[in-house]
Amino acid sequence: MSAATTVASTPPAPADPPAPARGMLHWIILSACGGLALVAGADALSRTGQRGGDVLFWLGCALIIVPAALRMFDRRPSSTERAATVVVIGLALYGVKVLRDPFAFTYADEFAHFHNLQSILSTGRLFGSNSILPITARYPGLESVAAALARLGGISPFSAGIVLIAVARVVLMLALYLFFERVSGSGRAAGLGALVFTATPNFLLWLSQFSYESLALPLGAVALFTLMCWGQATARSTRRRWTITLLLVGIAIVPTHHVTAYALVAFLLGLCLLHRQMYGRREAPWALTALLGVFAISWFIFAATGTLGYLGPVLTKAFNQVVSTLNGQASTRVLFANQGGAEQTPRPEEALAIAGILALILAIAGGVRVVWRQGRSSPLLLLLVTAAVVYVGTLPLRFVPAAWETAARTGEFLFVGVALTAALGLMWLLGRAGRPVRFRAQIAAAAIMFVFASGVIAGWPATLRLALPLVVRAGGRTLQPPEYMAARWMGAHLGTQRVAAADSDARVAVDYGHQVAIAGSNPDVSGMLSARTLAPWRPLLRQNRFTVVETDRRVVSTDVIAGYFFNFGSVSLTAPVETGKFNVAAADLLYSSGYINIYWVRGLW
Amino acid sequence: MVRGLRRSDRGLRDASPAPPADLVLAGALALLAVLAAEALPGSLLLLRALLALPLALALPGYAVTAVLFAPEELRTAERLLLSIALSIAATILSALLLAVLGVHLDLLPWSLVLAAVTLAAAAVAAARGHGRSLPRPRVALRASEAGALIGAALLLSAAGAVGFTPLSAPRGTHGQTALWIAPARGGAAVCVGISSDQLRTTSYALALSVRNVRISIGPVRLRPGATFSRRVAVGPGRPTVSARLSGAGAAGVTPVVLHSPWRVPASGC
User: Fold this and answer.
1) Cβ distance of B105 and A22 shorter than 8 Å
2) Fewer beta carbons within 10 Å, N or C terminal of chain B?
3) CB-based burial of residue A341 (10 Å sphere; 0-12 exposed, 13-18 middle, 19+ buried)?
4) Any idea of the CA torsion for B71, B76, B78, B81, to the nearest 10 degrees?
């Protein structure tokens, strides 16, 4: 049986069509830019502490999504217009994140990757050290490309990061569209599928951050497209060339992000096994899978053995807590809670989110039916549908605190299957009734906006969705929050030291003070900072050779999402004794700014 | 015999590959990118970025794609996708290669490697007959389309202007004042300083205590974002020195103290 009827059961897409009738792309671009203008207004209101930003935000998102969804449901657009539309929408949604953080990176992991980028630019070497997230330094794909952009273009590291993720976004949307088009044989399904993918809970903000997965996932989508082309190739020479292409892309993924590389190998392996079950061993990409698997394992062995120590505890903890929750030994997680477990999402948004998830499940069910009746001869399509079903199965994990993040992180990989399955289901559901075409397009657009909104609500705390004051103007100058001032002071007056600090302060100290700052529970810096007596913690200072301790009375300094901005209104503070325990003769209080104190503690060990 | 071409010759002539204008352009742009990155001054940053960034994001991938696939084998969107993705892959792999060879990831070696990949791939692609002639650029917009795009540009500019402009702080924002102390280089002195992140100009008074001797400094008026520092001689012996801040913005600022003997690295004022 030839490849065209096994791995990929649909005929390859035709060559470039002749010049199409006038499209609507210019109106979609206009609408998307209008949406961005509204989002900018929403962020401006939020940054100045004023109300009304949420309404503008949702209106802006609707202006971005709805016209494109209407057009994608239409049968008339050409493939080129559809591809261009999904790219425009992907870029516009990325613009939402850029407008939220226009001055600096403020996500927890962005600090880690920004440090790696700074390290490459200052030392000219890869594989530096990283005290925030050590494993990231062993996967330098993202930072190496950003460093190349900074070097070539003479632009700042921040600008290089912004440009790179924008390009990655173009790659992601285009790859998904072309992949879905080849899998389904339908540009309409492909366009709708690419739009549904933007409903991934992490898509709007998390997948837009300067982080290794933000580059690896788009490359993974390219790998899927290339795999499809490989499967549809009939000539041996063509297939060989697609093999080389897939290998080049896959080899670039391995040093970029561990989970994406392993997910790609696992997907290929699943495809091979399913293919063997359905059609026998031949014509499946065994050699490709083996080569990429060998490369991934080699990278793990020779460059990044710490990957197991990083991923293992996360998975183990998630599994253990699932078991504990099922046994009733652990309480469930508050849905829509922030990192501290406090619920922050307004009730109407919670209802919208849950309703959107139910709508998505309905569309997935329709898609499963479509594929089972018409497409179950394609192992690739079956695998995508399986991913969609597995995604639905992971939804209850959101009730388990430790498993929630694992479920959220795997969601974007599984959502590749969810997107196409839901798109096929949506087309089938709306095609069953005898309503006029106009009505169905509007329902489809509303459904996609609905599901997109539920993804945004589920993916990020409502109070942190809009921009917060990071850089403010006062007296003709610009100011930054106190932890940035403290970090710069350390860099200017203490050189590089080993610093114990709270989670968000440590990240700022690394990037802006060039310190080796350590936070968290391993070593137990957070325990030391919140303790009331100092004596039991001297061994920790000695074992980790801390010369500086940065204390911060603001409770928000332990919040890796919210702890980077100016405080206004009432501020929750810790007890004075927690920071005051360092006021001893053997420690020097070198810096004090009200909330933040910096102690030289070398004399304590 | 000489009038017109024989049918077979005409067939051969029609089958000759198109001149590889696209590959020549890719190679030329790669060289131009290296030159721009090395030679253009900072005042021409935008021009440098426009010329040089494609060397990491488009050119190597375009050339490699041309090696692998003939022009008619890929649609435009597919060629664009592979050009970018393979360029990113080339940049990552070139970084790893330079790292393995022990070469610093500086501008010149890195840009030369990427340009070499582009030129080599373009040459191979041209030899395979995978070049394309460049289509004549043709932009035909209706008035409504042009109007929509101009409107989009204006809206995007407005979004950027609002988004990238620092705004005033929310009401009730907590300004901060920092007081600091450190040993001064050269010995027998300390540096004391004040950094103001208050939202308005604020006056401070600084009081140092050295061996029960009080040294007053001030009043010091600082605008938002301004700093003040002073080198203060404290005599031999590296005594304990403390500093206290008073003033409207000093609430919550703990007196800083440098205990004897000094353990902290010396710093400039």
Assistant:
1) no
2) N
3) exposed
4) 110
Q: Would you say B64 and B128 are in contact if contact means Cβ atoms under 8 Å apart?
A: no
Structure tokens at A397: 């994990």
* Window 146-205 of B, Cβ < 8 Å to A: 148-149, 151-153, 155-156, 158-160, 162-164, 166-182, 191, 195, 197-201
Of B141, B170, B195, the CB nearest to A485: B195
Asked if residues A56 and B159 have their Cβ atoms less than 8 Å apart, the reply is no
B61 neighbors B82 (Cβ within 8 angstroms): yes
Q: Find residue A500's DSSP bridge partners.
A: A518, A549
**Rg from Cα positions in chain A:** 25
Digit-coded pLDDT (tens) for A511-560: 999 999 999 998 999 999 999 999 999 999 999 999 999 999 999 999 99
Please state the ipTM of this predicted complex: 0.93
Helix, strand, or coil (residue A318): helix
> Minimal Cα–Cα distance from A145 to chain B, Å?
6
A163 CB neighbours in chain B (<8 A) are 53
Beta bridge partners, B192, equal B181, B230
Which of A98, A151, A152, A570 to probe the B interface (max B CBs under 10 A)? Answer: A152
Chain B: closest CA distance from residue A127 (Å) = 9
Task: Give the DSSP H or E segment for B215.
Answer: strand B213-222
pLDDT along chain A (605 residues), means of 10: 42 49 87 97 95 94 96 92 97 97 96 97 95 94 98 97 98 98 94 95 92 97 96 93 97 96 95 87 86 94 86 72 65 55 70 88 94 85 93 79 65 93 92 63 90 89 91 91 96 96 97 96 94 94 96 93 89 84 93 94 93
Q: Alpha helix (H) ranges present in A211-346?
A: 212-232, 236-253, 258-279, 286-302, 306-326
pTM of the model: 0.93
State the burial class of residue A463 (Cβ atoms within 10 Å of its Cβ: 0-12, 13-18, 19+).
middle
Residues on chain A touching B89 (C-beta within 8 angstroms):
219, 248-249, 251-252
Number of CB pairs, chain A paired with chain B, less than 8 A apart: 328
Residue contact A154–B37, C-beta within 8 A: yes
DSSP at A557: G
Query: What span, in angstroms and rounded, lies between the C-alpha atoms of A523 and A525?
Result: 6
* Bond into A201 cis (ω within 30): no
Strand partners, B206: B217, B245
Nearest neighbour of A80 by CB, restricted to B77, B95, B178: B77
Q: Are strands A472-474 and B167-168 parallel, antiparallel or unpaired?
A: parallel
Structure tokens at B39: 């030679």
Q: Are A464 and A473 contacting, i.e. CB atoms less than 8 angstroms apart?
A: no
Beta carbons within 8 Å of B200's beta carbon, 6+ residues apart: A474, A475, B175, B224
Q: How far is B206 from chain A, CA to nearest CA, in Å?
A: 14
Reported as type and span, the H/E element at residue A366 is helix A347-374
Residue B106 forms contact with A (CB below 8 Å): yes
Tens digit of each residue's pLDDT (9 = 90 or more) over A311-328: 877 777 666 666 666 666
Written as one string, the DSSP assignment of A451-503 is HHHHHHHHHS-GGGSS---SSEEETTEEE--HHHHHHHHHHHHT-S-EEE--H
B48/A49 Cβ within 8 A: no
Helix H, strand E, coil C: the string for A404-442 is: HHHHHHHHHHHHHHHHHHHHHHHHHHHHHCCCCHHHHHH
- Cβ-contact B179, A592 below 8 angstroms: yes
**Which residues are within 8 A (CB) of B3 and not within 5 positions of it... i.e. 6 or more apart?**
none
Q: At A477, which amino acid appears? A: R
